[in-house]
Amino acid sequence: MAEDLVLELKKLIINTLKLEDIAPGDIENDAPLFGEGLGLDSIDALELVVALEKTYNVFIPDSEVGKKVFRSVNALAEFVKTHRA
Amino acid sequence: MWGRFTFGPSGSTELAEVSGRGPNRPCGATVMKYEETEIRVRFNEVDSWGIVWHGHYIAWFEVGRMALLRKFKLQPQDFAQMGYIAPVVDLKCSYKEPARLDEEIIIRTTVFKPTKAALTFQFEVLRKRDRKLLVTGEETQVLQALDGRLLYYIPPDLQKKLQNLFNYLEVPVSPA
């Protein structure tokens, strides 16, 4: 189940941000999504937040919460699992 | 003073003398109102080739943006009073024809209604004499709290003020 959610989130990230050259397998479960790792930026964060709300009805108010949630795909999956409606 | 932009389906901007409005435009184009601001090219803005140095157009975008935002008390100082700043995170500028010393210039400014917590402005710079399109541009700003947090949602107090701006420009929702 947790693995399914991780894969689902990787696909959501790729589709939302149109990361055409990246496959789910290229995203490490524990690698940071912003800065290093996938190297996403602030606009990417805003896009992701909208997609996560639409898909899982989870609310991430700002970067203070975001830096914990987007620490890795695993961290994101844990947040979604805990907060999804 | 204001008029209308026409944005084509590809997101490209074409200069439009628009008399109609709304969804009846051909090719699925969306019509948006814009604010017009006039300036005159100053001596210090012209380079040794006799044309406006490319960086000045960005400052002209700012002139247009401020003229628009001033009407709705949405200038940087107003944002700061509400506890926010709005840093620019993306800027595009496309040069078509140069402007020259002492020419009268029109800056057209409009904004997309956000689908996320960011504001995207679009600009056209025209020569007033013949309405020749010289430069187009686009600028995106995000929202930060004064403590440095990037805001992932537009707060209700700001959303309310922005709505007046969107109503004025009859802004459609951003294309996905």
For this entry, give a set of tags.
heterodimer; A: mainly alpha; 4 helices; 56% helix; B: 176 residues; alpha+beta; seven-stranded antiparallel sheet; two-stranded antiparallel sheet; 3 helices; globular
Question: What does this protein structure show overall?
Answer:
The complex is a heterodimer of chains A (85) and B (176). Chain A is mainly α and 85 residues long. In chain A, 56% of the residues lie in helices and 0% in strands. Chain A contains four helices and no strands. Chain A has helices spanning 2-16, 42-56, 63-69, 73-83. The two termini of chain A are 17 Å apart. Helix content of chain B is 20%, strand content 35%. The longest helix of chain B is centred in the middle third of the chain and has 15 residues, at 56-70.
Rg of chain B, Cα atoms, Å: 17 Å
Give the % helix of chain B.
10-25%
Distance between the termini of chain A: 17 Å
Low-confidence stretches of chain B: 7-29
Mean pLDDT of chain B: 85
How many strands in all of chain B?
A: 9
What composes the largest sheet of chain A?
Answer: none
Number of strands of chain A: 0
Largest protein interface? Answer: A-B, 14 and 14 residues
By oligomeric state, this entry counts as heterodimer
Strand content of chain B: 25-35%
Shape call of chain B: globular
Mean pLDDT of chain A: 92
Instruction: Profile the largest sheet of chain B.
Output: 7 strands, antiparallel
What value does the Rg of chain A take, in angstroms?
A: 11 Å
Measured as a percent range, the helix fraction of chain A is 55-70%
Number of helices of chain B: 3
Form type of chain A: globular
Low-confidence stretches of chain A: none
Order of helices and strands of chain A: HHHH
